[in-house]
Every structure is written in C-alpha cells, then in structure tokens.
Sequence to fold (781 residues):
Amino acid sequence: MTPELVERLVAAVGRDQVRLGPAELDLYRRDASNIVGAAGAVVFPGSTVEVQACVRACADHAHPFVARGSGTGLSGGATPLDGAVVIAMTKMNRLLSVDPVERRAWVQPGMLNLDLSRAVAHLGVHFAPDPSSQQSCSIGGNVANNAGGPHCLADGVTSAHVLAVEVVLPDGSLVQLGGEADEVDGYDLRGAFVGSEGMLGVATRVCVRLRQNPPAVRTLLMDFTSVHAGAETVSAIIAAGMVPAALEMMDRLCIEAVEAYVHAGLPTDAAAVLLVELTGLPAAVEADTAAVADIGRAHGARQVRVAADDAERALLWKGRKSAFGAIARIKPNYYLHDTVVPRSQLPSVLDTIYRIVDQHQLLVLNVFHAGEGNLHPLLVFDKREPGVMERVHAAGEEIVRVSVAAGGVLSGEHGIGLEKREFMPLMFGPADLAAQRELRRAFDPAELANPHKVLPSPATCGDIHAAPEGAWI
Amino acid sequence: MDLSAFAAEVGDHGPVTVAGLGTRGGAVAGVRAVSPPSGIERIQPEEMTVSCAAGTPVDDLVAALAEHGQTVNLPAGGTVGGALSVGRSDYRLLGYGPLRDVLLQMHYVSASGEVVMAGGPTVKNVSGFDLCRLFVGARGTLGFLGSVILRTRPIPTHSAWFRIATADPRSLLAGLFRPISVLWDGEHADVLLEGHPADVAAQAAEFALAPCEQPMRLPTGRRWTASLAELVASPPDTRPFVALVGTGVVAGDGIGDGAAAPGMTGGPDAARHQALAAAVKHRFDPEHRLNPHRYSHGNGDSGSGART
Fold:
C-alpha cells in the first residue's frame, strides 16, 4: 500500500472508513474458510459512487481489491491476497424498492439474505435461495457465489432469482447487467457475473425476483436402516415426477449429534433420515405427500412422520439446520466439503466416502441436499492431534476426485475460490480454462478484481504471492 | 459425443455461419455454412437431465422425453442449438423460468476451431465461470454449440388453458398461485394452469376463468419490456401485442422500426455496456468470423428488433 493509494481511498470514503490498523486488517484476512491471506487496507463505502472511487483508486495504482460481504464463504473466495484492498460492503445494506405486483426488489449487496425475506414477508413473498448461513450471509455474497440452500431443488440457485445487477467494473465505470424483465435480448452478462466470485467487478445494487409463499406445505421425515435405502428413495421420488421443495438427508453420526443437541425426536438408531418438504396448492401437496410416503415405505422406511403443524415442522428443520452447531459435541474442529454427484451415484459415492474417511482415521457426518446430489461431507477432528490436518486434506482431496469421477462436479454451492482452484483441471481442460480466463479478461483486463481465485495459475506464471500464506486453522 | 468433424468444418479462419432448420432466421446469407451434429445421446429421467447434439430438432427431443414422462423448457420448432442461441423463452416463461436456466453443460466449437466445454453435467454446479448462460441468446457469435446437457422437468399431471376478459390482469397475477402463463392482449387474459386437477379447477373457479381451447397467438416479432402498471395505464397503440404477464416481457409483430433491443441498451451506462459486450465478443471471436453481422454490441442482430 503506497501512501498515495491510501490517500485516494481516504478521499473516496472518508478517513474514518479506511482501516489500516493491524488488529482490523487481521479480521479481514480470511472468510469462513481456513485460508488466510493479507489485506492492505479495509474500506467501508456507503454508496455506489464511493465504491467507484475506491475501485478507480486501485485501478490507477494497479493494486488488487476484493469485495466482501459477510465473510461467510467457505472456499476462500473473499480471502485477500497480495495485500489487496478489502472493499467491505456491509454498510450498503438497504432494501431500495419493492414492486409487490411484479414481485421483485432492488437491494444493496450488503443486505443479509434473511433480512430481505423478512422485509418482504408481509407481501406473501420470499427470496428463494436459503443457504444455511442465511442469517448472516449477504445478498452480494449470494450473487458472487451463486449460492444455493435446501430450498433450491425446485426453484434453482441464486442465478435463477437475480434479474439485474448494477456493477462497478474493475476500471471504476458503472454498468447495469440484465434488466427488470425475466428475459432480455443480448449477451447474458448478468448470468456471467452471477457466480464469478468477485472477479468481474463489484455489485452495488441487485434486482432480485421474489417468489410467492406456497399456500400449502407438508414436511415429512422418514428413517431408514441403510444409507442406500435412503438414497434410492431420493431417486425414486424424482423418477416418479415429483420435485419437492426440499429433499435433505442426514446419516447416522449426524442424526446422533443433532438429536443430542436439539432433541427434535430423530430416531438415533437409524442409518439415514430423509427430510422431504412438499409445497404448492393443497390437492397436489396432499397427493404428493401420500406418494412420497408410499415410495419411502416401499424402500424400507421404518417410520414416516408427517409434521402435524408449523411447530413440528420448525422442529424438524431445526434438526437439519443445526447440524453444524451439533458437531462440536463430537470434535472441536470440522472441515465442510461440497461436491455434486448424479443422484443415482449417491449410494456408491457415500460408500466410498466412508471408506476414504476410515482409511484416514477420521470421522465424517453427512448432511446434504440429496435431491440435487449435492454432498456435504463434514470431516470432524481435533486439530491438536499431530498430523491430523494432513489426513483431513488428503481425505478431502480424495472425496473431490471420487465425486468428479462419478460424473459429478467440484462444487454445488460453495464455489471454487482458493480451496478448489487447483482441482479445476479435474473438470476442465486447458481450452476450457482458457475460455473462462477470456471472460475474466473481457471484464478485467488488468486482473485486479479478486486476483488468483477460481482459475489455476498458468504454469508460466509461478507467482509465489499467489499462494495463500498457509495456515489452516 | 465426438465433435471433431464439426470442429474441423468450422475451422480456424474465414467467415462461417451455423445452420439449423432455419426456423428462427436461419444462417447468415452469403457465408459458408456448417451444421452441428444431431441426435439424442442419453435421457436420464432420474437425474432430470438429457444430453443431445445441438442439431437435434426440439420437437424430436420433446417427443423422446415424453416417453419418460418428462419435457424440456425449450420453445417448439427448429433445433436445440437454434433455440438456445436465440435465447427466447416461449409463453411458459413465467412458470418455467427463462431459457437460460435450462442449459447445464455445453461443448462448443470456438472461433479457433477448438472444442470447448463449459458448465457441468449435474443439476447443480458452481464450478468456474458460467459460460453457459452467456451463450444462451448470444446468437452463435461467441462459439457454435455442438452438444449440450439440458435440465428436464416432469410433465404435469394436468394442464389447461383458460380465458377471461380483463383490462387489468394484475389481480390475476396477485391471486393465482404460480400460473405457468398469463398472456394479455389488452382485452383478454389467457391463463395456463398446471398441476393437480382439483387445484386447477379450484383456481379457475376462484377467478371465474372459462376453459379455452386455443390460447392467443404469441407474436414472434419484436419484444420489449414494460411494467404491467405502464401497460395497463397506456396499452401500446400498435396491435397486436401480447404481454407475458409477470415477466416484464411484451411481444409484438412490429418489425423494422429501428427500436433498440429492449432492456439492454437504455440508461446512462449504454456506451460502457456496449464496450463490455464488445470486449466479450473480441475475446471469444477476435476476427468476428462466427455468424458475422449477427453481433452488434451484444444485441444479436445488427438490424432492427426483427427476429424470432
């Protein structure tokens, strides 16, 4: 950080909104992943104009910058490298406008996901993507990562709910990508921007689609004596032509941990439980509830529990959503993975994951979006144990490789960031990666926006600064 | 799917255009034309995906999927590649979502004649940049689609059109639960409801909708965007128009009036937006050899809004 750049940032947002102290820089060295970088400064813009001024200052000094929402990302996407300027969007957190007729809203990117749905609840609508971090993650972060959540099975992930994005491009200029309509002619630069992990610019306003709340909701819990039976039930439900709003699965260790933590009445002797939520109009929901229960029983479900009321429904979901809190009862540390496999491969990939984890003398809890084949193996461990981190990383890498080899993908909703950057060649060849880099350079020829993320560094450019300085904690 | 022959045909120099069935404007006249392969590779109902070559006729694909109780959200007619490249949804945009959400993975032939893959084979994927959505609606100006994996959906158990006379469809949009389509021409609204027969009947009764055999024709010319409030307050002079209620899209027959493609170029950032689209084009096709003249600042056809 040169003094000139610092002065430009101060001029952009005011002296009290530029932080340079070691304690504060330390707070912004990482996101919710374990990957630590180094921030050169942290700035808190309050308006689009201020974001533009910050980005322009960085561009003029050829200094990298990283936009940051709530820092809940799990792949190191918001970890600053090379002393990047962190542009923290937390002050830009307002709901700008709501159109209750056409069901859309303009929001600032720092607004929290759940705050948005709460703010529009009186209109009978909600924002569909609901990551487990929805109480603390921001809409801007959802856009950057193309975030998902349990209720994305029927309605799709963030990109399906973002109509337009106002973006400060890496040269400081301002554009609107997309429009208020569901479909506009021309290159879908909006689509290219969503999920680009902060590498194409900084979103300063987002126009989101709001979904009608369903008139009827049914939530079922089914338990099985084998993970296979649970996974095959998932495939059978989809093959029967139903698309539940959510279709979630937990395995034995996870059930035990959750039940001890929240007492949701989960059967702790089960090998797997499926949580199925059906939403829509009443007759369809009733018919599908019966059909799902039949499919479950046909696949050996011991018990089919249909939530009798909202309180019981909330309790069942509390079990699912508190899995991450529950694991602390088993081991003090965890590493959460995120891959997708074809639904039909779930049983065999889960078997392989258990074997991998055994071989590395670790424990795994599985709690995941079964309806989409989106696995979330949670490796739990005690980092004080000597050599355990090596085993965690080795097991994680094997899980990623097995998922891709089964016809799956590297990430379903957490993104690539730094965590999976070096795995990209498992899915993409040199020409495929080159095309992605061309898109990046069309938006950011100088590659200053969140550099070194997503795309593996070309062999010719062995820039040691690209490597995060290490510490998995 | 082996795309090497198609890639060799596209080659790495000289203008080239891609031809399908000519349903949506066809290949660029006077330019060497190539055609992608055709054929369905794999239908996977339990994954809700299908893989096929870009030259596969949409109607063949829809018929093949129907045997498995599924369908795909592509507009009827022409080829899969053509439908995606033009990127315009049909009347089901409101209920099924935009066409761009259908494409999960693509193999395309680049301007340098290489086969490039983007996206992933699963219904959920955030690995790498989203080139698939960028290519939907790009009119073959960034690369020629060779093969694709598409998201499918179950065929609804029941589906029916209804009609009601109305000068303001806003109450329908407010009250109906997730209709698949609400088309409005200024005087009537045609509503497509799908789902359980009892639910469909109840919704129709609640809003006094009358059954209707054939919905109004969706004009295939110009498209523009307008808010419903605007449209109701001052319906367009040029008829026919049909609003896809709830989506912000209006379709008309008017052609050649020079109107800019809607929704993209307005506002103070128009010049920067055009420059950005031009940069994308330049990065993917530096010599502007792919579908020449179809590109204009990211707005597809360089002419008027006339296209289908």
Summary: Chain B has nine helices and 16 strands. Residues 256-266, 298-308 of chain B have pLDDT under 50 and may be disordered.
